[in-house]
């Protein structure tokens, strides 16, 4: 059974009103919204209303109330000023993306030191139903705003497992740790799908996306331990920021560590970046992780990193993301 966070249901808005003037209008608000059957629950000074009635409430609030003392939230998140509520309503389109599964996978090669394809990173690409393109950062931002991050992450993860079944190389699959409440529950469907498609678990590498900052390292450790128990591998993406301490890396024990492009681009001629790259390499080898440099665009950076001991490489120099996996890379 799916977690309710992975199912796209109607969004319910909690509205909190403060201040004597606003509270004196509670009965008027309730009567006004009940005409539209918009109130789901009323408790003290908090109303729970359906999305269809939100704009009507906002109009009433702006005309008759003190909006600066009215707040809203969805999915038990932090309270926000009512003036920000339109940002949630305006991204309703994300529901369609998830419900209709308007996502495809693109493949970007990861190569070894001989420029032979070692694996592919599977990257989600999105489009509206009319075929127009949506940028991933736009999609994930909308999902977060609307409380759909959990459902979107699951959709992308499952779609990537299906794409992995079509290749004979390892597949790197991104996931957002904060979208997983319980590894045993939230990742069960991922394991079941891999088994159904006869995908060797050791060929799947789940990549922690650090752009969604991980504050709870213990929770992340539980997720990675679950993946490890099921035979999957895992990688830390964008290493160089939050996961840079020796203690954290030793606890997480990643199979792969990816040096972020900001430390890679121009490394052949930048002493500061060279120091960072060498320190990263030392940490990776110390923890038994395979070091991978991403964002390589020029031959000089590839050669410098290769001679220093980096084992895997990714970037436009070897191939851009494409809807079908390239079978070999062009020698640089």
From TrEMBL:
<protein>
    <submittedName>
        <fullName>Diguanylate phosphodiesterase</fullName>
    </submittedName>
</protein>
<dbReference type="GO" id="GO:0071111">
    <property type="term" value="F:cyclic-guanylate-specific phosphodiesterase activity"/>
</dbReference>
<dbReference type="InterPro" id="IPR001633">
    <property type="entry name" value="EAL_dom"/>
</dbReference>
<feature type="domain" description="EAL">
    <location>
        <begin position="87"/>
        <end position="332"/>
    </location>
</feature>
<dbReference type="InterPro" id="IPR050706">
    <property type="entry name" value="Cyclic-di-GMP_PDE-like"/>
</dbReference>
<dbReference type="Pfam" id="PF00563">
    <property type="entry name" value="EAL"/>
</dbReference>
<dbReference type="InterPro" id="IPR035919">
    <property type="entry name" value="EAL_sf"/>
</dbReference>
